[in-house]
Design goal:
heterodimer, A: alpha/beta, eight-stranded mixed sheet, four-stranded antiparallel sheet
Chain lengths: 320, 343
């Protein structure tokens, strides 16, 4: 893709939570960009702030937020300036929707799934019930849920079908960006492959963009145009999938990729010694330094993000 | 074909597979759960395990691969003696265990270690690591405190929790996921079992720790010559761990073969589908669609006639696959497939 128009631009996004033990720096100065009909996957270990990043973009914040700042630009307008009500009316569902983690278990058990999928378009697109239902059925076709499932309840559907319903719900208002938080983590391999086929088809047909948040590196490649690696609240590397997967730059990305067991290649996987730092009081300097095999003196200072050209950015002194 | 002939076939095939003799032998195992309507009146059976036969050598690691609901957990629970089989036998070291009294069962269980899937859920939150590891020893009559301490020390060193003293007074919530799983492994090893049953031991862990735990298990298996049954849905971890793979679908083992044979010469269409659906991290994946069969595994209450995979199978042979259950064919030595395509 040449000359991309920017759909989402996040600058220096910070989200800290207040707890009795101090501030949890879940998202700490994240920058990234996303074009139209683009997909970026955010990979990282659990507790690195991936889900918090999703929540920060959609402003779905819990009560104990201490700091929430930075800029989130969607289609050219800074949505951080909007107040809560404007944000709800003009951004959420309309421009960005989300399939939260374990969405398939979060469907309302006492509503028919068709009604649930229709509801967002009644509220956000102002459709009446009949039209909204028609729109919902259209989405059911798109994600591969049989139409006669609409009057069923969530418990009558299998896990894969419920996950498709959750995706249909995110699509129904035709947003430009969908944030998928671990969309297949609880599903079987075949169902997972089917869901990814659906997501790929939707990307082709509707031209939506995705932010896919996952810890499963193997399946992340199924949807990735670009990859962002997150470690301890920061993005340490961004790059195109074609560049990243064969040769990651950041030592953490390299170690992470080496730890993935592979079915087809004959390599012995490795593991990363030690644990990610606590987000209460992250180390000054590079946050990966303590576990990094290529650590040197300069790592005591916080590395800036270096632009390596071709949309590759890496936050590491090795590339100074 | 009757079940007996099938059983005979696999006993004939067995000698080549044995490694230092058979430790565990599963013979035509059926586990059916009763379904009751309104609490009484039989409404049918859930056929969770439906005719499974295999032998496990005394220092052999096998992997049972299948999707959720294929009966792999029921198989595991039956092997652990938590569920009584409806039909068939489980023979451990020459002793049939499905009809053991409670005393004999206890001695059997001390020979079999169990590694749970979710380490946090498997560890009692109110007990320290020391307490958790003492419990099996106390139950199995090791009254001497010093001896217990010594064995705990030894087992924690084996699972590489250094320094041991730091971990003993800790509660499970104070440990990371990887450390919790190590404690679970230590607990399963503390009675020096001869066999381990590991139910998705790494599925709840992060990628970076996963390999560490698998290597640890592999190391323990080799050092103590353990038989290991590794239950998983993730084919990509299997090859680092086990010698043979058993693929289960809808309560039946449909393909048994050494790891390399499964990865390179899988014969059953379902195994093909599983392999196709497993991705390696490559950028090319984003550009192509995965060729996987649509649909879901069948209900185990009324499984399809004939081959249970036939409604989803792209190579279904009419009037054969949907009528008669395929027997086990052997396309090459040590490789058994229940599929009519291998006739």
């Amino acid at each position: 893709m040449t000359e991309k128009k920017v759909l989402l631009n996040v600058q220096n996004l910070v989200l800290h939570f207040r707890t009795t033990r101090g501030a949890v720096q879940a998202v700490d100065g994240v920058d990234f960009e996303l074009g139209y009909n683009d997909a970026v996957v955010v990979i990282g270990e659990s507790g690195c702030g991936k889900s918090s990043l999703a929540k920060a973009i959609l402003r779905l914040l819990p009560r104990n937020v201490q700091t929430y700042k930075g800029s989130v630009n969607i289609g050219g307008s800074d949505v951080m300036k909007l107040n809560e009500e404007e944000f709800r009316q003009n951004v959420r569902w309309v421009k960005i929707s989300m399939v939260p983690q374990a969405a398939m278990n979060a469907l309302n058990p006492v509503l028919r799934v068709g009604d649930q999928v229709a509801e967002p378009s009644m509220i956000h697109s102002g459709l009446d019930k009949k039209e909204a239902m028609r729109q919902a059925i259209k989405m059911f076709d798109l994600v591969g849920v049989p139409r006669d499932f609409a009057p069923r309840y969530a418990f009558e559907l299998s896990g894969g079908m419920r996950q498709r319903v959750a995706i249909a719900m995110a699509l129904v208002t035709t947003p430009e960006l969908i944030i998928l938080d671990e969309p297949t983590s609880a599903l079987d391999v075949l169902t997972q492959a089917n869901i990814f086929n659906v997501l790929k088809r939707i990307k082709h047909e509707l031209g939506v963009s995705y932010i896919l948040i996952t810890h499963d590196i193997s399946t992340s490649s199924e949807l990735a145009d670009r990859v962002a690696v997150m470690y301890a609240g920061q993005i340490v590397e961004v790059g195109r999938a074609g560049d990243f997967f064969p040769a990651p730059l950041h030592p953490y990305s390299q170690k992470l990729m080496a730890s993935v067991p592979r079915l087809r290649a004959d390599v012995e996987p490795d593991f990363i010694v030690g644990q990610p730092p606590s987000l209460f009081n992250p180390p000054t300097g590079c946050r990966f330094a303590a576990r990094c095999p290529q650590r040197f003196d300069r790592c005591a200072e916080d590395p800036p993000t270096y632009d390596r050209g071709g949309e590759r950015k890496v936050k590491c002194w090795l590339y100074a | 074909m009757s079940v007996e002939t099938e059983q005979l076939q696999s006993t004939l095939a067995a000698p080549g597979e044995k490694k230092n003799g058979t430790l565990l032998s599963i013979q035509d195992l059926h586990v059916w759960y009763e379904l009751r309507r309104f609490g009484f009146g039989l409404a049918g059976y859930v056929r969770a395990v439906d005719g499974v036969t295999f032998d496990l050598g005394s220092s052999e690691a096998i992997a049972v691969v299948g999707e959720s609901g294929c009966g792999k957990s029921s198989l595991m629970k039956t092997i652990l003696g938590l569920v009584t089989p409806t039909k068939g036998n489980i023979v451990f070291d020459g002793q049939t265990i499905n009809a053991l009294g409670s005393r004999a069962m206890r001695s059997y269980r001390s020979n079999v270690g169990y590694i749970q899937q979710d380490p946090y859920g498997a560890l009692p939150p109110f007990m320290t690591v020391q307490g958790i590891l003492s419990e099996p020893l106390i139950i199995n009559g090791i009254k001497n405190k010093a001896e217990r301490a010594e064995r705990i020390q030894k087992v924690l060193e084996e699972v590489k929790m250094h320094p041991v003293g730091d971990f003993l007074p800790k509660f499970p919530h104070m440990l990371s996921g990887g450390q919790q799983q190590r404690v679970v492994i230590a607990r399963s090893m503390i009675l020096e079992p001869r066999m381990l049953v590991a139910d998705e031991p790494v599925s709840m862990l992060d990628a970076s720790v996963r390999v560490e735990i698998l290597r640890l298990l592999r190391g323990l298996q080799e050092k103590h010559h353990l038989a290991v049954i590794y239950i998983t849905h993730d084919l990509s971890t299997v090859r680092y761990f086990s010698e043979r793979i058993f693929v289960m679908y809808a309560g039946q083992v449909i393909e048994k073969a050494p790891v390399e044979a499964i990865l390179r010469r899988a014969a059953h269409p379902y195994t093909h589908a599983l392999l196709e659906a497993t991705s390696d991290p490559e950028a090319a994946n984003a550009a192509k669609f995965r060729d996987v069969p649509p649909g879901e595994p069948p209900s185990l209450v009324k499984p399809p006639e004939g081959c249970r995979f036939h409604p989803r199978c792209p190579h279904m042979i009419k009037d054969l696959c949907d009528v008669e259950r395929p027997p086990e064919f052997e396309p090459e030595p040590r490789h058994q497939v229940s599929c009519w395509l291998c006739r």
